Amino acid sequence: MATRGLDGVKPICLLRPNVPIEWAPGCGRKMGMMLGHNRKMLGAECMADMLEAYGVTHVFHVPAVLRKTFAVMETRTKIKRLHVHSEATAAYMADGYARASGKPGICMAQVIGALNLAAGLRDAWLAHSPVIAFTGGRDPKTKFRHVYQEVDDVPAFEPVTKWNATVDDVNRFPDMVRQAFRAATTGTPGPVHLQFRGNEGQVDGDEGEMEPMVEPEFSRVPPFRPEPDQASVLAAVKVLQSAARPVIVAGGGVRASGAARELVALAEALQIPVVTSLNGKDSITGSHPLSCGVVGSYSRESANKVVNAADLICFVGSTTGGMTTHFWAVPKIGTPAIQIDINPEALGVNYPLQARVNGDAKVALAKMLAACDKSTAGKRKAWVEQAQSIVKEWYAKYKPMLESDTVPINPARICHELSKHVPDDAIVVVDTGHAGMWMGGMYDLRTSTQSYMRSAGHLGWAFPAGLGAKCGAPDRPVVTFTGDAGFWYHIGDIETAVRWKINAVTVVNNNGGGNQSKRGFDRVYGGTQTEQARELWTFNKMNFARLAEDMGAIGIRVEKPGDFPAALASALKADRPVIIDVVTDIDALAPLAVS
Ligand SMILES: Cc1ncc(C[n+]2csc(CCOP(=O)(O)OP(=O)(O)O)c2C)c(N)n1
Ligand SMILES: [Mg+2]
How far is the CA of 580 from the centre of ligand 1 (A)? Predict the structure, then answer.
């Protein structure tokens, strides 16, 4: 039986397609799934077989790239090939798919669309989402000869990928695709890019002798749960339980690790208030007695106040970045801190640490729970009561806004209605800017089975990401919240949703402009804008419900706040994509962060 080096390791090759193999006699580790063995096949066949074996169910693209692969997919796989309206949509849908399912999302573009695709990876990069991008690229025979549509795209992917590589020879398909899945899913997850030879990646039409093996571990996040060193766990527990006023800051790493239960268990055992980053918002429900809200810039006042009253911060799976810390004012640099992260290089980047734990969040938190002395919880009774009264004050202060009956509608009221009425297993997807502020601060998850995903900065991300999320988790309701400026970006993809029967619900906070910009323009106009200044941030009034209907979706227009719950209920029952167009107050502004 022939053997051949795979990634430098000598495997045992079994001539039984689709059977998991063991590597190396006596080693006994399940390492991969053979889909064929040193057989002549097209790159396209190899790619199609590998993607299917990795569990990919959807790919998002603008033609034409890897054409042969797409043709072959039709006969060899069940993968859905979604032709969408822009490369950024393809990247955002792949990102939403990845964040909802935990599996890498795949997006593709030909050479001329490559930079649009790279731009679309930026949010996945910022949010640590495992997106794999394939593009067409240059051919050694013709590059530097002014080939139509061609520039060197590879450098543009560099700042937004963990791994950025070229596939020039068909025989490299198996190992390069495997490396793409490894890089996207391991450690802190993130996007990767493979550029295939030929402006449309025509290298996939070449034949090679290949072993299209896949490694199932890397088909989802996290592939491994690295255990932290026990001494580091004990050191962190010691610092944590000796603090009088600690607070846990839960970041996106908690969501990536699926560590919410362990996080809440540790917080309960030691009686520690919990705040989250926007990316970690679904780590704890809003109604949990220790939950204080989202901290940082797009935040809830109570969270910032609790963090700034704390004597120790425990960061879990957080980059401690500017958004989560309100540019390092919450907490202030110098506040004692400990940190848990899968990436050792993240430990201590912004806050000097008293203890550091390197490992998977779920495992690390479970080990901390096992090692902690629960009897120390009693001394934090007054602190927990203080945090709870700060949270109560917040609800009392914002009750009028959350329950506002004004027409046009106050967006806070939409957030409040969503808190009450999205289903127990819903995935809520939120755009950035004002949408991020409104929902980050005003929306509460009601159950631990609800999920929350947000744009890490790109206006327009949420609508396509919500469609991608529905592809990645078809059995769960998906409710997206976006402003009208955000919605305009990819409005053409209503047609994609209708064509592919992606029955997500999209709530548009329609105020006729990008009103988050209002405060900034007030400032530069010295306090009062000229009438003409509004051309910088407002649009024509639009009825998105009617547009949605014209494109084959269901459109529901909501003008009175009391009508929203019934609109949402009927949208969730519909067998088509639904746009709920909510007419809101252009002068309503979300509260600013306190520090
Ligand atoms: C790609 C991108 N460009 C620009 C911005 C800056 N930006 C943030 S919010 C915003 C306007 C948001 O308008 P809309 O979605 O209608 O929400 P509203 O503020 O009206 O509630 C802009 C332009 C951004 N975040 N992302
Ligand atoms: Mg708007």
Answer: 19
